[in-house]
């Protein structure tokens, strides 16, 4: 049979022959008769024929459909070429050769291309014809507000480029005529909108008085472009511009009055901020005022009420304003360590205010000028004052270091002892820099005095005199230290001779009170024995300088030393007397 040798690639090694052999083996095992075997084989052959027959019928039907599809495609291709006005299209085969599918595959791209062209051309024709009809009705006035035309019918039998160009030429002529009119309409509407916004007027209610289509919610193409509409809009814009000019002049005058009153009374920013939308127009031109509501009637009324209120407060607040400026001036001098006579300045302000020819603006201008000069002077002193602070800080550390060095328990394992050790290391480094700091400060001070032609004072005391005195006292202190070292050597020699004479070294009797004082000074640094330039000169000069702002000058501000050596000598003699002991008898 024909199926016996058939090899199906989908079944792999399994073929009809192999399956028949398996069937023969099974029959042999079962013991089927030859007659039954022939019937089964005949049945298999008939089933195979039925399958082949069905496949042939399906193939014939598919061929008929493909042929019909090919014929329809050729007919549609011819019709589209005629409608689009094209003789041919690239890609169509000249001869109908090859299989049916090959012919369909060859003609399908061209057919799809022509279909896309047809759809695009129909859309273009519809859009152009609709615009032409709409423009005609708008220009003639036949198109009512809010009315929309339906899409026109397009003749698909004539979609040639020539016909489309005819429509486009007509459309361009109509569009040019409408564009000129619409451009003027939009300019007028925009001007009305901007003017109404600035003046705080209802734009919609104003512009729709001319024509309902001029509202922003209406599309541009739907706006009226008639001669009557253009004339009414032109007159409306001129009237609104005149109103804006009048209100602008009024708001500028009110803003200038507000600014003068605020400056006169030194009004804070918080009080001025609510009226920023008014004062911002002072330096603007008429065309620059575009903020919505900037020239509204309620804004003008608000400014008028504020001007009236400030006029009433002006006289009663002048004293507070003047003294506030004086406090500011005194603060600047206090930070710069410049001594001034505050009581005389305040008396002068009171006399000016109480005089009959009192002019508030002149007084405030004079005080502003004083503040400006004070700031300039403080700026010129800034570098020197920073170095003065560094010098006095170093003197504070020097005083603490001396107290710490006299503490016998400084190396004991007490709480915080390691912190004091670290501070002592840093203090020694800083103390070694004091001579260089003083020399630099002297050089800068002399340069400043030469430039400004007056002595540099620190809280009323000449700084160079303070520095010179400090250097002299520091030298005396060093001399005292050397004398004490020499005295200690003599005492040690006497003790050694006594030891040779009496056979033992006497134990010095250390006063208990001295130990307590040293322990208290180890961590404090505030009760220094030798004193620092901070407290010594401050205490001496606190009664001899004029304090600014009713004596609120910082009395503890570091200044140069006065009784430095005198106190150091007392402490040194006290320590020497406590350390020196006479011979001890057995």
UniProtKB/TrEMBL annotation:
Which stretches of sequence are listed as region Disordered?
A: 499-559
Q: What is the lineage of its organism?
A: Eukaryota, Viridiplantae, Streptophyta, Embryophyta, Tracheophyta
Q: Identify its protein family.
A: Belongs to the MAP65/ASE1 family.
Q: Which residues form a coiled coil?
A: 49-76, 463-497
Pfam families per the UniProt record, alphabetical: MAP65_ASE1
The record's InterPro entries line, in alphabetical order, gives: MAP65_Ase1_PRC1
- The lineage's top-level taxon is Eukaryota
Q: Where would you find this protein in the cell?
A: Cytoplasm; Nucleus
Can the keyword Phosphoprotein be found in this entry's annotation? yes
Entry keywords, A to Z: Coiled coil, Cytoplasm, Microtubule, Nucleus, Phosphoprotein
Record-given protein name: Microtubule-associated protein MAP65-1a
A single Gene Ontology CC term: microtubule
**Principal localisation:** cytoplasm
């Amino acid at each position: 049979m024909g199926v016996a040798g058939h090899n199906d690639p989908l079944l792999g090694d399994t073929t009809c022959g192999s399956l028949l052999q398996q069937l023969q083996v099974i029959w042999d095992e079962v013991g089927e008769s030859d007659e039954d075997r022939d019937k089964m084989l005949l049945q298999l052959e008939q089933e195979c024929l039925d399958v082949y027959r069905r496949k042939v019928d399906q193939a014939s039907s598919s061929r008929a459909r493909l042929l019909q599809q090919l014929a329809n495609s050729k007919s549609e291709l011819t019709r589209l070429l005629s409608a689009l006005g094209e003789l041919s299209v690239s890609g169509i085969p000249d001869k109908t050769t090859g299989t049916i599918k090959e012919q369909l595959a060859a003609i399908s791209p061209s057919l799809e291309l022509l279909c896309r062209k047809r759809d695009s051309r129909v859309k273009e024709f519809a859009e152009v014809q609709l615009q032409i009809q709409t423009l005609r009705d708008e220009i003639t006035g036949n198109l009512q507000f809010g009315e929309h035309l339906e899409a026109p019918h397009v003749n698909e039998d004539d979609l040639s480029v020539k016909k489309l160009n005819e429509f486009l030429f007509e459309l361009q002529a109509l569009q040019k005529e409408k564009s000129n009119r619409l451009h003027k309409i939009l300019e007028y509407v925009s001007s009305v909108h901007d003017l109404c916004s600035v003046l705080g007027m209802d734009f919609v209610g104003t512009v729709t008085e001319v024509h309902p289509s001029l509202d922003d919610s209406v599309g541009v193409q739907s706006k009226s472009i008639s001669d009557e509409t253009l004339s009414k809009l032109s007159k409306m814009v001129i009237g609104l511009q005149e109103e804006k000019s009048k209100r602008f002049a009024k708001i500028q005058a009110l803003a200038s009055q507000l600014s003068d009153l605020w400056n006169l009374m030194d009004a804070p920013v918080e009080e001025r901020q609510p009226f920023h939308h008014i004062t911002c127009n002072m330096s603007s031109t008429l065309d620059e005022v575009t903020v919505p509501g900037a020239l509204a009637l309620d804004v003008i009324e608000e400014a008028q009420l504020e001007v009236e209120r400030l006029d009433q407060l002006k006289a009663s607040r002048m004293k507070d304003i003047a003294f506030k400026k004086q406090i500011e001036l005194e603060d600047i001098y206090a930070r710069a360590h410049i001594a001034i006579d505050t009581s005389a300045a305040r008396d002068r302000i009171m006399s000016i205010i109480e005089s009959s020819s009192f002019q508030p603006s002149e007084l405030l201008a004079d005080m502003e000028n004083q503040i400006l000069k004070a700031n300039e002077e403080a700026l010129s002193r800034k570098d020197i004052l920073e170095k003065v602070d560094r010098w006095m800080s170093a003197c504070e550390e020097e005083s603490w270091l001396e107290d710490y060095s006299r503490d016998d328990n400084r190396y004991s394992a007490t709480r915080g002892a390691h912190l004091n050790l670290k501070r002592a290391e840093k203090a020694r480094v800083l103390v070694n820099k004091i001579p260089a700091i003083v020399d630099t400060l002297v050089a800068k001070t002399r340069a400043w005095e030469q430039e400004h032609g007056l002595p540099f004072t620190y809280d009323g005391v000449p700084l160079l005199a303070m520095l010179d005195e400090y250097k002299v006292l520091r030298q005396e202190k060093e001399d005292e230290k050397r004398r004490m070292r020499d005295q200690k050597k003599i005492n040690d020699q006497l003790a050694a001779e006594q030891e040779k004479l009496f056979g033992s070294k006497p134990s010095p009797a250390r006063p208990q009170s001295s130990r307590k004082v040293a322990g208290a000074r180890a961590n404090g640094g505030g009760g220094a024995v030798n004193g620092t330039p901070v407290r010594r000169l401050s205490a001496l000069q606190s009664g001899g300088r004029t304090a600014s702002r009713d004596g609120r000058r910082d009395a503890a501000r570091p200044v140069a030393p006065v009784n430095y050596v005198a106190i150091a000598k007392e402490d040194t003699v006290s320590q020497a007397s406590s350390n020196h002991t006479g011979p001890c008898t057995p």
